[in-house]
């Protein structure tokens, strides 16, 4: 790679942290490390990172709290959780508070490197491509500005997360069409499994609340199939 991409690795296990850091550096990445959540927050505030690898079980401040802190100021940087937890709700929590994916321990470096490559490519495409103009899209009574992560209604703007933006964008590009759950997961999350599927349901509930002020917009659940983003034209 022409310029070393900078990653933050947050892991309290000394041996695992050393192995992962060494492998990442051998693959051309520049890597900062943190041994606990407080160190991770301090490093994030002082540096700019292209991607963050974040253990869930951390001393001082856990990985979920670290992710929440990061998402307050940065919606774009990909976060990959490392988790030894088997609890379903923990994985769903990580995804819905702003994590992009998770890797359960033990994991292979090949799997981690592949996920890093995928998310760096996607985030660089979003950040690196300058749009010709800031494109706005009318969705019912709402104005959607994907480049600015904004959904506004009557001049009131709501700041979106990256995943919310990507999901609304996909829905708006396929208005009134039947959308398969698996297709949505592959398009927005880049993969498809049980935990991502549960995370999708949480995001759908969130978007329904956002669009609730306009009764002409519905996200219809098609049991066993997926969803339909229904937008009716207002009658004059």
From TrEMBL:
Pfam families: Response_reg, Trans_reg_C. Residues 134-231 bind DNA. It comes from Mariniphaga sediminis. GO terms for molecular function: phosphorelay response regulator activity; transcription cis-regulatory region binding. Residues 134-231 form the OmpR/PhoB-type domain. It comes from the Bacteria. Keywords: DNA-binding, Phosphoprotein, Transcription, Transcription regulation, Two-component regulatory system. InterPro entries: CheY-like_superfamily, OmpR/PhoB-type_DNA-bd, Sig_transdc_resp-reg_C-effctor, Sig_transdc_resp-reg_receiver, WalR-like, WH-like_DNA-bd_sf. Residues 6-120 form the Response regulatory domain. This is DNA-binding response regulator. GO terms for biological process: regulation of DNA-templated transcription.
């Amino acid at each position: 790679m022409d310029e070393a991409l900078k990653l933050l690795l947050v892991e309290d296990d000394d041996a695992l942290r050393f192995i992962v850091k060494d492998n990442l550096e051998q693959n051309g990445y520049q890597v900062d490390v943190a041994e606990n959540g407080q160190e991770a927050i301090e490093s994030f505030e002082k540096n700019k990172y292209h991607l963050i690898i974040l253990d869930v079980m951390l001393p001082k401040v856990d990985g979920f709290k670290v992710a929440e802190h990061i998402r307050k100021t940065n919606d774009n940087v990909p976060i990959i959780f490392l988790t030894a937890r088997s609890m379903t709700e923990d994985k769903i929590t990580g995804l819905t508070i702003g994590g992009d994916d998770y890797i359960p321990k033990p994991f292979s470096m090949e799997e981690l490197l592949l996920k890093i490559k995928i998310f760096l490519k996607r985030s660089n495409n979003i950040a690196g491509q300058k749009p010709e103009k800031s494109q706005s899209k009318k969705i019912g009574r709402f104005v959607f500005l994907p480049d600015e992560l904004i959904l506004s209604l009557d001049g009131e703007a709501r700041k979106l997360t990256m995943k919310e933006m990507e999901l609304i964008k996909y829905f708006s590009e396929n208005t009134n069409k039947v959308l398969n759950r698996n297709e949505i997961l592959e398009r927005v999350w880049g993969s498809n499994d049980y935990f991502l599927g549960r995370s999708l349901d949480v995001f759908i509930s969130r978007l329904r609340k956002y669009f609730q002020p306009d009764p002409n917009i519905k996200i219809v659940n098609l049991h066993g199939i997926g969803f339909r983003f229904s937008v009716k034209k207002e009658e004059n």
